[in-house]
Amino acid sequence: MKALHFGAGNIGRGFIGLLLSQSGYEVVFSDVNESLVQTIQQRGSYTVTIADESGKQIPVEGVNAIDGRDPAAVAEAVASADMVTTAVGVNILKHIAPGIAAGLKLRMERGAAPLHVIACENAIGASTQLREHVMGHLSLEEQQKAASFAAFPDSAVDRIVPLQHHEDPLAVTVEPFYEWVINRSQMFSGSQEIQGVHYVDDLIPYIERKLFTVNTGHCSAAYAGYRKGYSTIQEAMKDEEVAGLVTGALQETGSMLVRAYGFDPAEHENYIRTIMDRFRNPYLSDEVVRVGRSPIRKLSPDDRLVRPALRAWEQGGAFEHLTEVMALALKFDFAEDPEAVKLQGLIADQGVRQAFAEVSGLDPDHMLTEKVLKAYNHQ
Ligand SMILES: NC(=O)c1ccc[n+]([C@@H]2O[C@H](COP(=O)([O-])OP(=O)(O)OC[C@H]3O[C@@H](n4cnc5c(N)ncnc54)[C@H](O)[C@@H]3O)[C@@H](O)[C@H]2O)c1
Ligand SMILES: O=P(O)(O)OC[C@@H](O)[C@@H](O)[C@H](O)[C@H](O)CO
Predict the structure, then answer these.
(1) Residues that bind NAD(+), according to the entry (predicted)?
(2) What is the pLDDT of residues 190-201, one digit of tens each?
(3) Residue having the nearest C-alpha atom to atom 11 of ligand 2
(4) Which of 51, 64, 306, 362 has the fewest Cβ atoms within 10 angstroms?
(5) Residue after which a domain boundary falls, among 201, 225, 257
(6) Are both 143 and 221 inside the same structural domain?
(7) Which ligand has the nearest atom to the CA of 88?
């Protein structure tokens, strides 16, 4: 069995590649980073280290890689795979779609064997988004044919994998915790399960609980930490003011999620506590600039800040801490982050109100825009 995984980065090697390999798949990575691809091709293996007192090392063997910039190689890899997964970043999905579409066309010529394509990105409905991009590269007739043998089940992935700074370019250190949930109702029946994956019939409560707890809390620590001059999430979480903001934001999203999905409040409290402990993991060093990366994406309408705040507001709940975090996100001016640079440019050109309205999709005089502006001016 062969799995093609787009993105040999931190989550690709440290989570998805590892689980697929442990499930008996021969993993082939597609990446645009030439030296990463060459090293995987030469070595054919890498090591995952667990960030806890055990320091356990897990070898991942029998892996290979192809150059993601080679359209023929990508199409052939898609055509011959038993499973396709991605962890490239949600905004990159449109760039890998042509290669997947070309691979699906080859599969049509060769008997149209069933295929699952699973996007493992931090976004709601990422596989569905990828499906739309892929279908855009097929004719109407090809789309109908593709829909009969290619399914794009949505998924939620959770494992903190920081930026890696090892001598060995393939080594990857990951936290012990992981959760990979896949929407079974979007899959073909009778397909082989991946070990360690939790299959569910309704993914929405799982992806929203993950995105609006782990990722909302994480970016709260990142933006507050960045503002106060901390380098890592672990340092930031030692600051009571930062930890207080994270707790406040997670109480707000927690109340919203409990109301929306009927989660048990005590269990959700426990979920929040576990996540705060994960952020504090002393065996990890996770840079605030990684966790805060791409602030325009993080302030977009369906992402981890605006969507839960609006939902809380609709329910009559609190969202003041979320508002504070949005204002801090607008101040994330890390010069090496292209979206941070673009956002600062928007603010300089149009002012904070208009810039926030543009990235959040809200009206400039929307209640939330007003509150974010007020928080921004008081910070
Ligand atoms: N790191 C985490 O803790 C974590 C956890 C859960 C989910 N995620 C999500 O996983 C995704 C990847 O995150 P990451 O931290 O692994 O990022 P990363 O930057 O470490 O890895 C992304 C990889 O994709 C490659 N890539 C870029 N364009 C490509 C293309 N056109 N074709 C093939 N490969 C391409 C890059 O070269 C890089 O190696 C993101 O959506 C992120 O939100 C990350
Ligand atoms: O990957 P992003 O930019 O969407 O979010 C940054 C981090 O919050 C994220 O990578 C977490 O580490 C991860 O989602 C944990 O499961």
Answers:
(1) 3-14
(2) 888 999 999 999
(3) 160
(4) 64
(5) 201
(6) no
(7) 1
User: Which residues does the annotation place in the binding site for NAD(+)?
Assistant: 3-14
- Give the model confidence (pLDDT) of 127-147 as tens digits: 999 999 999 999 999 999 999
Please give the distance, rounded to the nearest whole angstrom, from the Cα atom of residue 267 to the centre of ligand 1: 31
CA–CA–CA angle 13, 15, 16 (5° rounding): 80
User: Does the beta carbon of 17 sit less than 6 angstroms from any atom of ligand 1?
Assistant: no
Tell me the C-alpha to C-alpha distance, in Å, between residue 87 and each of 13, 37, 127, 189, 305.
10, 15, 11, 24, 22
Domain co-membership, 132 together with 215: no
- The mean of the pLDDT values for the chain is 98
| Token pair recorded at residue 308 | 């839960």
In which domain, by residue range, is 342 found? 205-378
pLDDT of residue 191: 84
User: Which of the listed residues 143, 170, 201 is the one where a domain comes to its end?
Assistant: 201
Structure tokens at 289: 């600039």
Q: What are phi and psi of 64, to 5 degrees?
A: -140, 180
pTM: predicted TM-score of the whole model, two decimal places:
0.98
Relative to the CA of 293, which ligand 2 atom is closest?
A: 3
Ligand 2: residue whose CA is nearest its atom 12? 160
Q: How far apart are CA 364 and CA 373, in angstroms?
A: 10
Helices (H) and strands (E) in the chain, counts: 19, 12
The per-residue pLDDT for range 146-191, each reduced to its tens digit, is: 999 999 999 999 999 999 999 999 999 999 999 999 999 999 998 8
